[in-house]
């Protein structure tokens, strides 16, 4: 894959005024090129077809380079690219996902890394769940901790409720907005599968008001 050609196309489509607004939405933490999502997806589409995508053996090197390019649109492309490989992960790819979580961390990248990439990885390598998530949980890094809460977001009936309960109990109540929000999000998502489990858990666990509000939003509907 010629990712330098992609870089050229993105730079040609840059809109400085829009970039300022997009950066402001993210609290001016990251630079943008100013490419709206529909336009970006059109530009990157030829690079995502099967014949254009890099071999899985090249992914680690290419993604680390893409991830360090400053403008946020390159990270969004990188995430779209990685979702094409969810059944091909090798054990070493978890280190790549951790690298991505820890670089210029914010919800717009971390949530997809956790729910789509880490989630699919752990389905292939469940034997890595215990050691990896325990390391994240005790790391002191909010974004790795948030990943513990969100990697099962799409698991539905395959959710390991003992782990989910353990992660939430360890991280609740918290002074961190993003941990409270993620705890509630994980509970709300699982309430679509087993609302009674969520009701019982919320009633018997000390949670932040935000986690309770978010987690019970769908109950009774």
Automatic annotation (TrEMBL):
Residues in the signal sequence: none
Segments crossing the lipid bilayer: none
Pfam families membership: DNA_alkylation (PF08713)
Record CDD domains: AlkD_like_1
InterPro entries tied to this protein: ARM-type_fold, DNA_alkylation
Name the record gives this protein: DNA alkylation repair protein
Organism: Sediminicola luteus
Lineage: Bacteria, Pseudomonadati, Bacteroidota, Flavobacteriia, Flavobacteriales
């Amino acid at each position: 894959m010629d990712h330098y050609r992609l870089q050229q196309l993105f730079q040609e489509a840059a809109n400085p005024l829009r970039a300022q607004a997009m950066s402001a939405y993210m609290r001016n933490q990251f630079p943008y090129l100013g490419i709206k999502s529909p336009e970006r997806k059109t530009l990157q589409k030829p690079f995502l077809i099967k014949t254009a995508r890099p071999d899985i053996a090249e992914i680690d090197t290419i993604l680390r380079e893409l991830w360090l390019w400053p403008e946020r649109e390159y990270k969004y492309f990188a995430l779209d690219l990685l979702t094409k490989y969810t059944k091909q992960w090798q054990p070493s790819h978890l280190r790549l996902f951790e690298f991505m979580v820890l670089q210029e961390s914010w919800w717009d990248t971390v949530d997809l890394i956790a729910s789509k990439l880490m989630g699919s990885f752990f389905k292939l390598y469940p034997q890595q769940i215990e050691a990896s998530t325990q390391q994240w949980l005790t790391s002191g890094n909010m974004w790795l901790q948030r990943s513990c809460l969100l990697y099962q977001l799409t698991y539905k009936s395959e959710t390991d409720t003992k782990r989910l309960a353990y992660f939430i109990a360890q991280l609740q109540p918290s002074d961190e907005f993003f941990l409270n929000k993620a705890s509630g999000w994980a509970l709300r998502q699982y309430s679509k599968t087993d609302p009674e489990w969520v009701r019982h858990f919320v009633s018997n666990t000390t949670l932040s008001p935000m986690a309770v509000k978010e987690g019970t939003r769908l109950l009774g509907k």
